[in-house]
UniProtKB/TrEMBL annotation:
<dbReference type="InterPro" id="IPR051824">
    <property type="entry name" value="LRR_Rcpt-Like_S/T_Kinase"/>
</dbReference>
<dbReference type="InterPro" id="IPR001611">
    <property type="entry name" value="Leu-rich_rpt"/>
</dbReference>
<dbReference type="Pfam" id="PF00560">
    <property type="entry name" value="LRR_1"/>
</dbReference>
<dbReference type="InterPro" id="IPR032675">
    <property type="entry name" value="LRR_dom_sf"/>
</dbReference>
<protein>
    <submittedName>
        <fullName>Uncharacterized protein</fullName>
    </submittedName>
</protein>
Length: 91
């Protein structure tokens, strides 16, 4: 198994992640984010993330806040968001 890496990691605490990528090229979100099951806040705003949200984000059942605004995402709102029982803010 390859090492777990997050390119552009800005800051990380045991329960929240603020990720800032300084790239003008669109990229797809890493499936590895779904392994961070203790996150309660995930901020990915304005990172030029393209495509659809990966199904692995459905594993983040402790999320209370999810920020993904300012990204050129496509597709439908994924059904796994309904599994986020603690979520209070999606931007």
């Amino acid at each position: 198994m390859a090492p777990f890496r997050l390119h552009g990691l800005h800051s990380l605490s045991p329960t929240w992640l603020f990720w800032e990528i300084e790239s003008l090229e669109p990229f797809h979100m890493s499936l590895s984010l779904g392994k961070l099951v203790n996150l309660d806040r995930l901020h990915l705003s304005v990172n030029n993330i393209s495509g659809q949200l990966p199904e692995s984000l459905g594993n983040l059942n402790n999320l209370t806040e999810f920020r993904i605004d300012g990204n050129p995402l496509t597709g439908k709102i994924p059904s796994f968001i309904g599994n986020w029982k603690k979520i209070s803010r999606i931007i």
